[in-house]
Backbone:
């Protein structure tokens, strides 16, 4: 059994189980009567066009006046067309396959209903196949049986990668699989992308084999080189043993020379330490003298500033006294002039 899109397309007659609303705009905007409470009006479908039927149905279920139908609304709509309808996950999968967003607009309604219809009829067949595998009537089948069902449905498009991904996503690995758990992926239409993904996985597996072979060859080459290196090291060890006595004598001579040089170095360091101590002492004295000179200069500067400040104060006092005397003289002259003027008037 291969999965092929259903050839059944929606026509006005397909909607006869859904009553239509009045063509008057006011009736459409006001009346939102549930489908179960309205009598069948199939006769209307005989003379209205498919587009009119779709628009009328869309408006009937667009109870929020958003211009879009949610998955729950589409499920209710389709249940009026097909007895029992399909599950909500199937509706959401239909929307994902057909619509541009997570909701369905008026232009997408026809295509999404076709997709839901395809899934509806396919689910009927798959439920029968599932029941055949569920011999004990437990409502579940094993993972091996579920894989067999997927391979039978998807045929050459069966994706081992997607199957493993499904198994890893299960909450209880190894437990029985219900039909509700696999109905959506079973109804999904395989694409060339699935095969390309499989091919990519195969290519990666081949690359991994090649990589491991190369690593093995590299390890063998390293082992060979290690063996050659070991032989070379043993040969060098023999040569080093022959040189041991000679090197020992040279080492003793070098040790004696080093001791002598160490003694000379310590003597130089001791002399340098004395010179450094003397230098630091001289520098300390120089810094103290410079500090004293700076203090003396600061004292003289402060005294000079104080002297200048005192001279400036005396100068200002003298100027103020002169100005006061001039002011008094001016007042006296003004007083004399007033007295002369008064005498002149008498």
Residues:
């Amino acid at each position: 059994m291969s999965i092929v899109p259903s050839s059944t397309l929606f026509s006005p007659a397909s909607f006869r189980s859904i009553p239509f609303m009045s063509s008057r705009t006011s009736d459409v905007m006001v009346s939102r009567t549930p489908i179960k409470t309205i009598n069948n009006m199939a006769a209307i479908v005989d003379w209205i066009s498919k587009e009119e039927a779709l628009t009328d149905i869309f408006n009937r279920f667009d109870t929020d006046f958003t211009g879009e139908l949610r998955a729950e609304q589409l499920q209710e709509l389709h249940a009026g067309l097909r007895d029992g309808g399909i599950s909500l996950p199937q509706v959401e999968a239909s929307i994902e396959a057909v619509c541009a967003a997570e909701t369905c607009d008026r232009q997408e309604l026809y295509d999404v209903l076709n997709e839901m219809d395809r899934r509806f009829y396919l689910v009927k067949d798959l439920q029968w196949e599932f029941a055949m595998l569920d011999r004990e009537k437990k409502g579940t089948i094993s993972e091996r049986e579920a894989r067999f069902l997927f391979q039978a449905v998807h045929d050459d498009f069966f994706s081992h990668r997607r199957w493993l991904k499904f198994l890893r996503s299960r909450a209880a690995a190894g437990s029985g699989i219900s039909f509700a758990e696999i109905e959506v992926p079973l109804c999904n239409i395989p694409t060339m992308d699935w095969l390309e993904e499989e091919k990519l996985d195969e290519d990666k597996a081949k690359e991994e084999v090649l990589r491991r072979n190369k690593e093995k060859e590299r390890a063998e080459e390293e082992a060979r080189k290690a063996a050659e290196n070991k032989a070379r090291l043993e040969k060098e060890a023999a040569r080093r043993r022959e040189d041991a006595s000679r090197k020992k004598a040279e080492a003793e001579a070098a040790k004696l020379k080093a001791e002598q040089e160490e003694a000379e170095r310590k003597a130089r360091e001791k002399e340098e330490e004395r010179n450094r101590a003397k230098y630091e002492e001289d520098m300390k004295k120089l810094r103290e003298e410079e500090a004293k000179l700076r203090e003396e200069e600061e004292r003289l500067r402060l005294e000079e500033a104080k002297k200048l400040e005192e001279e400036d104060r005396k100068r200002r006092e003298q100027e103020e006294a002169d100005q006061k005397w001039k002011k008094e003289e001016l007042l006296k002259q003004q007083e004399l002039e007033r007295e002369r003027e008064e005498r002149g008037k008498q």
